[in-house]
């Protein structure tokens, strides 16, 4: 069976500055490709090209074999989630999540059922009639996640979606993402600068550095690559634990 998403020889530069260099990867249905990289490495540009918000200079991208380059963003069956939830401030939580179904003119009973079930999954049912400004940051991000899921996208593109949340809320959202992703068999490209987040959410791993993407065949390779700094982080925490144990 062919991959769901295939990207090959993708390049992009702004002026004389190369941003992406010969990017290539594949995504199977249900996979979460966690792409780790520092700020300015090209992660956001890659997602915008996939979403149709930027055009590549060269290269191909295909969804189940269909060339995506001429396909407008609203027909790509992809949803791009940012750090900021970007909710409609004048709509309730329920109506924000229902928006995509209403645009598609789904039946009212279908909308009520699907939105209510999804709000339950996202622990938002008690907030259905609230406005976005009445929610916490984590709750707003869950509403944004629900609005994306309700239209059953083929691929979710996540641009550091939990980056603005505090540590505990971020950890909670990572676990929520894992649970819902598995339940709905969601295919995702999740970019982050946080190695722990990448290891938590990913089923496959890659590293983006100066516009070049390295894919790893196994999690051990990802951890051991010195560019990810994961091995040094692990050593740091092991030293902290040993020092704490010695002090006791």
For the terminal residues, how far apart are their CA atoms?
57 Å
Structural class label:
alpha/beta
Compute the number of helices.
Answer: 8
Strand content: 15-25%
Mind describing the biggest β-sheet? 6 strands, mixed
How many beta-strand elements?
10
Give unreliable regions as ranges: none
Net shape: globular
What is the CA-based Rg, rounded? 19 Å
* Cross-sheet strand order for the largest sheet: 6-7-8-3-9-10
Task: Tell me about this structure.
The structure is a single chain. With 248 residues, the chain is an alpha/beta fold. 39% of the residues lie in helices and 24% in strands. It is built from 8 helices and 10 strands. It has helices spanning 43-51, 93-103, 108-121, 137-149, 167-184, 195-201, 219-224, 230-247; strands at residues 5-14, 17-27, 32-36, 58-63, 66-67, 78-81, 155-159, 188-192, 204-209, 212-216. The strands form 2 sheets. It has a 6-stranded mixed beta sheet with strand order 6-7-8-3-9-10, with helices on both faces. Strands 2-1-4-5 form a 4-stranded antiparallel beta sheet, with helices on one face.
Topology overview:
Blueprint: E1 5-14, E2 17-27, E3 32-36, H1 43-51, E4 58-63, E5 66-67, E6 78-81, H2 93-103, H3 108-121, H4 137-149, E7 155-159, H5 167-184, E8 188-192, H6 195-201, E9 204-209, E10 212-216, H7 219-224, H8 230-247
Parallel strand pairs: 3-8, 3-9, 6-7, 7-8
Antiparallel strand pairs: 1-2, 1-4, 4-5, 9-10
Helix pairs in contact: 2-3, 2-4
């Amino acid at each position: 069976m062919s991959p769901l998403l295939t990207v090959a020889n993708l390049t992009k530069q702004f002026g004389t500055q190369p941003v992406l260099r010969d990017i290539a990867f594949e995504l199977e249905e249900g996979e979460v490709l966690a792409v780790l990289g520092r700020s300015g490495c090209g992660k956001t540009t890659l997602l915008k090209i996939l979403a149709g918000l930027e055009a590549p200079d060269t290269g191909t991208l295909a969804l189940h074999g269909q060339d995506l380059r001429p396909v407008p963003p609203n027909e790509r069956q992809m949803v791009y989630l940012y750090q900021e939830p970007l909710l409609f401030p004048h709509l309730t939580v329920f109506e924000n999540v229902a928006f995509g179904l209403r645009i598609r003119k789904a039946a009212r009973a279908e909308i009520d059922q699907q939105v209510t079930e999804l709000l339950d999954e996202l622990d938002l049912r008690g907030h259905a009639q609230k406005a976005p400004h009445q929610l916490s940051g984590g709750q707003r991000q869950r509403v944004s996640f629900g609005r994306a899921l309700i239209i059953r996208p083929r691929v979710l593109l996540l641009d550091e979606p939990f980056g603005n949340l505090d540590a505990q809320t971020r950890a909670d959202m990572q676990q929520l993402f894992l649970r819902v992703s598995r339940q709905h068999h969601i295919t995702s490209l999740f970019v982050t600068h946080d190695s722990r987040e990448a290891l938590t959410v990913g089923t496959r791993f890659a590293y983006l550095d100066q516009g070049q993407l390295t894919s790893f065949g196994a999690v051990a390779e990802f951890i051991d690559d010195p560019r990810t700094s994961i091995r040094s982080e692990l050593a740091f925490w092991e030293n902290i634990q040993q020092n704490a144990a010695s002090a006791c």
